[in-house]
Design goal:
The chain is α/β, with parallel strands linked by helices and about 250 residues long. The protein is built from eight helices and ten strands. About 35% of the residues lie in helices and about 15% in strands. The longest helix has 18 residues, at about 10-25. The chain binds fructose -6-phosphate (F6R). The site of fructose -6-phosphate has 14 residues, from loops.
């Protein structure tokens, strides 16, 4: 596991974009696993800049998002379909047919989850998975006490996650209670993982995930068992990690 502490959020975002761009230069038809939320926004902005100014090519890239709220159509501005299109996809030259995000309003949730895992397998598996981390240690929407062996599945969101994500909605009542998420097993199958964390609120949980026991209570702790993880945090999220590096 490589742990990199960037100087600032901007520095973290630029370094993250460089890792994704490097993956695409080496393998233009890479399968990228993507996250939403506040953390990767700067990385997406930087990737758009590199696409526009340096010609980073997404024509062959394939993407799979980690999760989507259940009950929100793609037109809802809080859906992850909307987020991805608005913040990234519409600014680059990715083919619409190469974009995969779990459906927010599937007729059959079980079938949608199986379809999603099958698609990932058919595309050859994820080459580089980008992850954020929740204040409760979740990755994707794999909430504490999740089963590590889960593949893509329906999840009930934790109160902590609902509270944390309420900032994106008008009222907390509007935050969906359920989502579809790639499971831990799906994430662990990715060949490389890039875990991002930004801000003081992530300091304790990122420390626990990396340096304490591997436990379903902190789902991200399973990444200690992954063979190729880069953890990239900004100074604010990395204060406890810095202390470990200095010791
Ligand atoms: C989003 C996702 C979540 C977020 C996490 C952190 O697709 O899977 O695990 O990465 O909740 O969210 P932010 O970055 O908003 O703090």
């Amino acid at each position: 596991m490589r742990i990199l502490i960037a100087k600032s959020y901007e520095d973290m975002s630029a370094k993250a974009a460089r890792i994704v761009a490097g993956q695409l230069y080496l393998k233009p038809d890479s399968v990228l696993g993507l996250a939403t939320g506040s953390t990767p926004l700067g990385m997406y902005h930087e990737l758009i800049r590199v696409h526009k100014e340096v010609g980073l090519d997404f024509a062959e890239a394939i993407t799979f998002n980690l999760d989507e709220y259940l009950g929100l159509p793609p037109s809802n501005s809080q859906s992850y379909h909307y987020y991805m299109n608005h913040n990234f996809f519409k600014h680059i030259n990715i083919r619409p047919g190469n974009i995969f995000i779990p459906a927010g309003m599937p007729g059959d949730v079980e079938a949608e989850c199986c379809f999603y895992d099958r698609q990932i397998k058919e595309k050859g598996g994820i080459n580089l998975q980008v992850l954020g981390i929740g204040v409760n240690g979740h990755i994707g929407f794999n909430e504490p006490d999740i089963k590590f062996e889960a593949t893509t599945h329906k999840v009930k969101l934790d109160d902590e996650t609902i509270n944390a994500n309420a900032r994106f909605f008008k009222t907390i009542e509007e935050v969906p209670r359920f989502a579809i998420s790639m499971g831990i097993k799906t994430i662990m199958h990715a060949k490389r993982v890039l875990l991002l964390a930004s801000g003081e609120s992530k300091g304790v949980v990122i420390y626990k995930a990396l340096y304490e026991g591997i436990t379903p209570t902190i789902p991200a702790s399973i990444l200690q068992l992954h063979q190729d993880v880069t953890v990239l945090v900004d100074e604010a999220a990395g204060s406890l990690l810095r202390r470990m590096q200095d010791e």
